[in-house]
Amino acid sequence: MKSKIKQYLFLGCLLVVLLLIPQFITDALLLQYMINILIFAYFTSMWNIIGGYAGQMALGNGVFIGIGAYVSAVLFTYENVNPWIGMFAGGAVCALFALLIGSLTFRLSGSYFALGTVAMLHIIRLIFTSNKVILGYKTKGALSFALPWRGGGLLNMQFNSNVGYFYLLLGLLVVGLLVSWYIKNSKMGYYLQALSTNPAAANSVGVNVMGMKLKANMISAFMMGLGGTFYAQFMNTLDPNRVLGYDMSVQVLLFSIIGGAGTLTGPVLAAVLLVPFQDIIRGWVGSSIQGLAPMLYGIVLMLVVYFMPKGLWPTIVKLYKNHTFKKQQKPKEGQVKTP
Questions:
Q1: What is the average per-residue pLDDT within 153-164?
Q2: pLDDT of 72 over the 90 cut
Q3: 339 pLDDT tier (thresholds 50, 70, 90)
Q4: Of all residues in the chain, what percent are helix, strand and coil, respectively (each to 5)?
Q5: What is the dihedral of CA 302, 308, 311, 316, to 10 degrees?
Q6: Cα–Cα distance, 167 to 165 (Å, whole number)
């Protein structure tokens, strides 16, 4: 009971600190870095539902970010649909698409499943980059799709400063983490953990393996689709090669694995550490040697994966527990340690 109270107090204090950040960080560039961290912390945590909890190596699930972004952006631009409504429309489209694709790809296993998700990603990207009009709406093909500026602050998710976007994305991250926490600690979470460890054994004890995979994939896709709307309103411009590109999917996947796939805190920790590190490497190296920045970034990621195969957060927890155990075993002053 005391440990739970301490955890809730810590989380409450952390939330207060995050709410006060814009009051102390007034530099627009630094605040944008913080927003980037929130965005990737959210996307990584939502991918973790299918990739971490369910143990499915979905390499192309970043496509749902782009689908959600485009659906809400098109409705906002051409139909004047409020983005708060558009984001649920985009999330619903992502969930239905995840159901359709998942019913096919989940019949595959191992690397074949991963390749199937990559194929799905590239097909969708090629559809958007090769066609300037999709379902009667001008998406401008490979060119960037610019959203109209209508202002309105919270009503249209368009703010005159980054402070509004910071609070908006912080709220999104909190909601996403609550959903992730609920799934992890629910009956569904235990089912996902079982099928992730041993699908055959889980099926033998009555777990609907296919049904659980589809359900997790739909929830993950829906939440990533919601985030796509926030991403579109923040960037105000959609580049199909970015939001529907392979790099976005891999980055989200790597953050989850490096932070600790299957944990609640790991993906957020990885985003907090790696997003600014990536920006620092790019700024430090710049364009002095082409390709040096991603190479250095890749080397660091390989070292982390090699020395911390279970991820940053599980390693930190393990070290803390070992330190606490040794501290408890150490005899106090004047106490004789019996063999």
A1: 89
A2: yes
A3: very low
A4: 75, 5, 25
A5: -140
A6: 6
d(CA 51, CA 219): 12
Instruction: Name the residue among 279, 280, 251, 255 with its Cα closest to residue 265.
Output: 255
- The phi-psi region of residue 262 (left if phi > 0; otherwise alpha if psi is between -120 and 50; otherwise beta) is left
Residue 102 is encoded by which pair of tokens? 């998942």
* Annotated domain spans of the chain: 13-245
> Which of helix, strand or coil describes residue 219?
helix
Residue 292 has pLDDT above 70, yes or no: no
Return the half-sphere exposure (C-beta side, CA atoms, 13 A cut-off) of residue 20. Answer: 6
Residue 238: phi and psi, rounded to 5, are -110, 120
Q: How far is CA 117 from the centre of its chain?
A: 17
What are residue 57's phi and psi, to 5 degrees? Answer: -80, 75
Give me the phi and psi of 186, to 5 degrees please: -95, 175
Across residues 232-250, what is the average pLDDT? 89
Phi, psi of 335 (to 5 degrees): -100, 130
Tokens of 189: 């979470």
Q: Strand, helix or coil at 130?
A: helix
What does residue 129 show for φ and ψ, rounded to 5 degrees? -80, -25
Element (H, E) at 138: strand 137-138
Left, alpha or beta for 194 (phi > 0: left; psi -120 to 50: alpha)? alpha
Task: Tell which residue, 137, 98, 103, 144, has the closest CA to residue 121.
Answer: 98
CB 84 within 8 A of CB 156: no
Instruction: Determine contact, residues 308/274, Cβ cutoff 8 Å.
Output: no
d(CA 112, CA 120): 12
Global confidence as pTM: 0.90
Structure tokens at 223: 């939440």
Q: Given its phi and psi angles, is residue 308 left (phi above 0), alpha (psi -120 to 50 degrees) or beta?
A: beta
Measured CA to CA, the distance from residue 51 to residue 255 in angstroms comes to 11
